[in-house]
Every structure is written in structure tokens, then in C-alpha cells.
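Exercise: predict the fold of this chain.
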Amino acid sequence: MFRNQYDNDTTVWSPQGRLFQVEYAMEAVQLGTATVGLKSRDYALLVALCRTVEEGNSVQQKIMPVDVHVGMSIAGLTADGRTVCQHLRTECRTYRHSYDENYPVKRLLDALGNKMQSHTQRYSRRPYGVGMLFAGYDEGGTYIYQVMPSATVLSCKAMAIGCRSQSARSYLERYVDEFLGSSKTDLIDHGIKAIYGALGNRDSKDLIINMAMVGKDMPFTIFSQEEIAPYLEKAKIAI
């Protein structure tokens, strides 16, 4: 994707001080299907809107487990998301082998930010064209992190990224004060209602989502479609 003489690689700045390759990667995130992350005191939840693959009528999974205490959802280039996920899995295994404990979530995401930053500074690399939301739990509590191609790493109470995610963010901002004390069921209800805002003109009957949760006494768990169905029905009635 080249539009002018200043976007051949990530080391060339335009006269206006812009890095076009980084901007293109950010655009890829906005074209990806939406994903939402939110947390309570004891649980962190990821909900991702999935696109059906025409060949075989399969669903492109948007949530990936990283370790027993952390996982990620993506918006943007799925291949780049899988590459980042595989890197993080290796880091977590190495840390457990060395220290016999889980990799602290904050340190893991700080290290990822440094890795993604290096891809915006070297001629031989390109920025990852994927935005990610991470849900994790460790001794410090629950975490929701947003990581973008520009290597921006933000700790959030709730966040939505991807196509038409502004509607989901508006819902999260409206109810963010309720999340901290929410039960597991209430948190899931809020997550599904938020993702409904990113549907646009699509029929909600065709809504296909991935959902995963991690928290106190609960490893990172991806819900099956049968487990998600009752929450979807409840959300349809409430909306």
C-alpha cells in the first residue's frame, strides 16, 4: 500500500512529520471487526464480533489464549495477530521455565510494547497491522490493556477497537462506573450489549461472537457458542 514518496518504509518521515506506514497499520485496525474488553474487581472479559468465512461457512476466531492467566482479542490483520500471540506464548513459557510462576501481566505488555516499537523504527520491518485488547489476572488484580500498531500500550477499565467501535465505546463510557462491582453474569451482559453497538446495519440474528473471561479462581476460558447463546437471548430481550 503506497500512496506517495514518503511511505516506502517506516524510517521515512513526511515533511509534516508523519509516518505513513504506521498510519496505514492503524487504518487496518479500523477495518477489522470490533472487539470489546471490560473488567470488574474479580473478572476481565473479552467479546469479539466475528466475520463468517464464506468458504466452508466457518468462523474466523478473534480471541486467542496466551497463557492460563492472560489472553487477547484482535482487530485488523489476523496473521499479524497470530504472530504476536505466538511470540507472547513463547515469552510466557520461557518465564515459567525460569521462575516457575506466571509472567506478570503488566511486565508482559510492557515488553510487547517495546517489541512493537522496534517495528516502527527499522527499515527491514513494518508495523503490525493489528490492534489488540488483552484481558489478564494476577496478584495485582484484573487487567484490560489496549495495544495498537503505533506501540501505544494503555491500561483501561474498558475499551473497544475496530470497525464501528465508537458506538461500543459510548456504551462502555455510559456504564463504566457499574463495571467494578459487577458479577460475572452482569459483566457478560454489559459486554454483549456493548458489542451490539458495533453491528451497524447487520441483522443481530446473524451475530457471531467470540467471548472469553479470566479472573479470580478462573483461568483464561473461551466460551463455546452453546454457552454464549443464553446471554445473547437475554441481551436481545433487554435491548
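Check your answer against the key: The radius of gyration is 18 Å.
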